[in-house]
Amino acid sequence: MIQALPKLVTFEEFIEWFPNNGKRYELHNGVIVEIAPPTGDHEKVVGFLVRKITIEYDRLNLPYTIPKTAFVKTPSAESVYLPDVLLLNLDNLPNEPLFQKVSTVICAASVPLVVEVVSTNWRDDYHKKFADYEEMGIPEFWIADYKALGGKKFIGDPKQPTFSVCQLVGDEYQITKFTGNDLIVSPTFPQLNLTAQQIFDAAL
Q1: Domain for residue 17, yes or no?
Q2: Fewer Cβ within 10 Å of end Cβ, the chain: N or C?
Q3: pTM
C-alpha cells in the first residue's frame, strides 16, 4: 500500500487558511503543524522572560517591542514559526513587506532576539528552529530548557535544566550554556542581571 504524501502548503496558503479558533499553528517545510497548548509552568517562564527583557530595553531606551502574536518566516523554505518570545526592532518594521498585513517578519534586522521555551517538541527548538534562525541571521537566540527535556548532547548527561544563549558569529551560532546560579551573558543585553536558576524557578 502506497501512502499519499501530504500536500505541501505555501506561506500564502497557510495565512489564508489560518483559522480563528484559538489554536496555534506553524508551518514546517510546507506542512501545517498544530502546536500543543502550553502548560501553565511554560507560560510562567515565558511571562518572566518577557518582563525581564522589557525592563532591559526600556532602561536602554531601545526602539523594541514584544508582540502578542507575530510570525517569523524563513527565507529558503516554506516554514513559519510562532516564537515564545519575539523581540522586534520597530525601526526596521517599515522594511518588512508582510508585517502590516499579516504580522510576519522576514528580515533578521527586525529581530534582535528570539526565545523558545522548551516543551515536549524539543527537537524543533534544538534542531529545526536553531538551523532556520541561524540561516536567517537572527543575532541572538535563547533556548530555555527549564524541565531538562532536550537531548543529552544539548544539555549534558545527566540531563539538567539548561539555558542556552546562541550568538551569531559570522554565519553560525556559537552556543554558551548556563545552569544553576550561572549569570547569563547576553550580547543584546550586556547588563542583564539574571541567573539561569531564576528563570527555572519562574516555573514553580
Answers
A1: no
A2: N
A3: 0.94
The helix (H) or strand (E) run that includes residue 48 is helix 40-59
Q: Are 83 and 71 in contact (CB under 8 A)?
A: no
Confidence of residue 22 (pLDDT cuts 50, 70, 90): confident
pLDDT at 3: 52
Question: 158: buried, middle or exposed (CB in 10 Å: 19+, 13-18, 0-12)?
Answer: exposed
In a domain, 139, yes or no: yes
In a domain, 5, yes or no: no
Question: At 59, is the pLDDT very low, low, confident or very high (cuts 50, 70, 90)?
Answer: very high
Number of domains in the chain: 1
pLDDT of 187 strictly over 50: yes
3-class secondary structure, 41: helix
Kindly state whether residue 101 falls inside one of the protein's structural domains. yes
State the greatest distance between any 2 C-alpha atoms of the chain, in Å, as a whole number.
Answer: 62
- 130 Cβ contact list (under 8 Å, min separation 6): 141, 143, 166, 173
CB 91 within 8 A of CB 73: no
Burial class (CB in 10 A: 0-12, 13-18, 19+), 50: middle
